[in-house]
Amino acid sequence: MASMSADRKAALRRELLSIVGTGGVLSDPEELLVYESDGLTLFRALADFVVFPRSVEHVAAVVKLAAREGIPFVARGAGTGLSGGCLPAEGGLVISLMRMNRVLELDYDNQIAVVEPGLVNLHLSWAVGPRGYYYAPDPSSQQACTIGGNIANNSGGPHTLKYGVTVNHVLGLEVVMPDGEIVWLGGRTRDALGFDLAGIFVGSEGTFGIATKIVVRLMRKPQAVKTVLAVFDQVEHASAAVSSIIARGLVPAAVEMIDQLTIQAVEDAFGCGYPRDAAAALLIELDGLETGMEVQASRIVEACRSAGAREVRTAADEAERQLLWKGRKSAFGAYGRVSPAYMVMDGVIPRTKLPYVLSRVNQIVAAHGLRVGNVFHAGDGNLHPNILYDPRKPGEEARVVEAGAEIMKVCAEVGGSISGEHGIGLEKADFMPFIFSAADLTFMQQLKAAFNPRGLCNPGKVFPTKKSCGEAGPVAYRPHAIEAQGLAQRF
Amino acid sequence: MAAPLLDKLRAIVGAAHVLGGVELSPYVIDGRTPLAAVFPGSAEEVAAVVAFAAEASVPVVAWGGGTASSVGMPPPRAGVVVVLTRLRAIVEHEPGDLTVTAQAGVTLGELQTALRARGQWLSLDPPDAERATLGGVLAANASGPRRHLYGTARDSLIGVTVVTADSSLVRGGGRVVKNVAGYDLPKLFIGSYGTLGVIVEATLKLRPVPDEERLVGVRFERLKDAGAAARALVGSDLIPSAVDLLDGAAAAALGLDDAPATLVVGFDGLGEQVDWQVTQLAALVAGGGGRGVASLPPSAWSRLARASHNAFGTPAAVMTLSVLPSVVADVMEQGTAAARHRGLVTAWSAHAGVGIVTGAVRADGDRQDPATLAAVLAEWRAAARAGGGHASLTWAPLAVKEALPVWDDAGPAGRIMQRIKAQLDPRNLLNPGRFVAGI
């Protein structure tokens, strides 16, 4: 939005302070800079204010103020998102939920927890771990990202193959609607009455309102876990092994693929025990009952061998298992050894199309004179090609963006999707027509209007529009603050 | 009015695929006979029917196998019933993708048979699978005992194609198992009873058929003890696929001994996993009043979801309550007492691990007083609400529907639902007046 007059800004600042109290409002440009981007630093936009409510009443009052004044607003968690979804694309207010980070209730008898949106994902599993429970959705940024942010993006993670994504674990939400009304969508019990408003709210990327309380399911920790590393001399064989595992009636908790470039970067950096000369490796995890675990593991081994694995190894103990996962989870950090910068893509394809699409990805990236490392959720068909580049070389970043768009087109062509977990946000708004017709998009816009009729709540996101970027446009790469501190990685 | 309407419809779908007059008796709801029933042969024909109905300002009522047609308020206006059963193709099943795309009118039974032939299944097991269609199961959010482990339609549905009120063909979601592009429209259509669009095609996640599956029953003297056992089971290391609780009347309907309470548990997986879990279950219930673990015939699976409903042939009313799992046995006992207090006999069953409880009232000839029935049902609803849940009638005659709202009160969320309806069906043509919040 156009810049505010100094008088109006001062008046708004006073009113915001009267709602959230001293220390709850940022308005100095230097302070606002921290909030100008999320994990996708390609896009930036400055807010007029960042506000830190501590209660649902604060959120409702801030939203009512914004509605009264016609000021756009956007909710923000830890800012680890990777699509620019929490950027104040049109200025206005950023409503940070980081001070609403309490676990409000742990009901083990009913296996649910009630939490505030600013709670860090992993902290919930820590809270319930001693009682033998955990919160299943495990985005790779789970040490930093918040459950409120997970709600906005319907986040997944490696273990969503077996346990589903965020929406499958959310029963109800207390929401501040874009007009400031506080409403419960769903609740603590199953099968919400009427339309599944909680279900449709999850994944709406902050455009339907702001979740202030979240009822999630808690899962019992599995009795046993087994982790298998399968090593392949050809990427195609690793891809084929994924479908072979699925077609044999096995549902591992996770099936992750790591390609050669990534393996070498990881081994250089951390030495996790992946063979450097392998073309690709699959990290496969089984969980469940102790009984039968050996039989299932042997079926996995057999599936990998028959697909052409040269070596299949089971982690002998917890230490080896952790080391193998460390290789997977630190892959993004390891790219720093082989490239000054990279951009992570997020697309989904039917699992059987993996061999074809991976070869197309390699062709596309090579045609743009770039390199790519692949480390991704193969079991779900959720690709994460990481295009390596040097932002100091003129024109290289533009080629990355072009290659990314072509990769998204390939995902769409094979019947896939342009995002498996990072969301559309600003980044992919213009790619939506790759997979949705004008009628599909109109229908979604109408749905949005039912929640957010004035469009003040997180404007400029999800839908293609020429002016959607506003002041937020692609700029040169630089690490996000929390990335620089080593608190989060790009997955 | 009727004759030109029928002619127009015949022109769209062919004369052989339009029913009128006395042929409409299967489609009568709460005494309301529709104007016509049409059987479109393609999504495009569905769209053409909806466009015509909009032009004529008559409601459109999507219809699958009719198994959930009694759910909802009495229809305020007669409309055109759009029967989807000619759209029954399995469009794509690629086992390596563990997904299936099928048209809405395929019956669940037919779909499962085709999937099982290739070692997979759709993890939805609502009652009446031989008649219930895929689209109907989604629109009614129907579920069965295996939802304990595998969830409901919201955990399986990944893509949906619908004909909207403005007769557009709209696709939501996609064909891949993980997808956050755009709003999650599949969630919107689940349980929406045809009020937002006519589902014509769906894509769902599948699961491999387990090596073995077993259903067992444990008898208890008291519901309370069976309820406690269910909670201990759910909090243990075991991974049951079903945890159902039946009272004596519902157990009898299933052909079991009419012990005051029966805990019915399903297990699946490798043979050794099933064996081990059954053994563990026996140990777990032994100290809590459980009398042995008996294997049940596989045929009992499909009757579990309607065990209470079927206890009395045609019941006087059936209500489904959504409550916290910890209060399931209490709610069943309270509900039984509230009915007995007014001289009514009931049957109860529950998917105890997830807190979905169904109570049925026995019909008592012609002399049943709707006011008494409504008073009992209102007490049941109050019990559900007291525990943070809700309750709605899933089956009732018109007289009871007139005495007690079919649906529970959705509160402020109901207004959001009304706004969604107003946005997506501004002329209120899609199955109007039968749903929650007056939608």
Describe the overall structure:
Chain A is of the alpha+beta class and 491 residues long. Among the domains of chain A are: 103-220, 2-Layer Sandwich (Uridine Diphospho-n-acetylenolpyruvylglucosamine Reductase, domain 3), CATH 3.30.465.10; 224-334, Alpha-Beta Plaits, CATH 3.30.70.2190; 339-418, Alpha-Beta Plaits (2-Layer Sandwich), CATH 3.30.70.2740. Chain A contains 16 helices and 20 strands. In chain A, strands 15-12-14-13-18-20-16 form a seven-stranded antiparallel beta sheet, with helices on both faces. A five-stranded antiparallel beta sheet of chain A has the order 5-6-10-8-9. In chain A, a hairpin with a 4-residue loop joins β5 (103-107) and β6. In chain A, α8 packs antiparallel against α13. Chain B is α+β, with helices and mostly antiparallel strands and 439 residues long. Chain B folds into four domains: 2-83, Uridine Diphospho-n-acetylenolpyruvylglucosamine Reductase, domain 2 (2-Layer Sandwich), CATH 3.30.43; 90-208, Uridine Diphospho-n-acetylenolpyruvylglucosamine Reductase, domain 3 (2-Layer Sandwich); 212-304, 2-Layer Sandwich (Alpha-Beta Plaits), CATH 3.30.70; 309-403, Alpha-Beta Plaits (2-Layer Sandwich), CATH 3.30.70.1130. Helices cover 33% and strands 23% of the residues of chain B. Chain B contains 15 helices and 19 strands. Chain B has helices at 2-13, 43-56, 108-116, 134-139, 147-150, 153-156, 185-189, 223-234, 248-253, 271-286, 300-304, 328-341, 370-386, 398-403, 412-424, and strands at residues 18-19, 36-38, 60-63, 80-83, 90-94, 99-103, 120-121, 157-163, 169-173, 198-205, 207-208, 212-220, 242-247, 261-269, 291-296, 317-322, 346-351, 356-361, 390-395. In chain B, the strands form four sheets. An eight-stranded antiparallel beta sheet of chain B has the order 15-12-14-13-17-18-16-19. In chain B, strands 5-6-10-8-9 form a five-stranded antiparallel beta sheet. In chain B, α1 runs antiparallel to α2 (43-56) and α8 (223-234) runs antiparallel to α12. The longest helix of chain B is centred in the last third of the chain and has 17 residues, at 370-386. The two termini of chain B are 26 Å apart. The mean pLDDT of chain B is 96. At the A-B interface, β9, α7, α8 and α15 of A face β9, α7, β11, α10 and α15 of B.
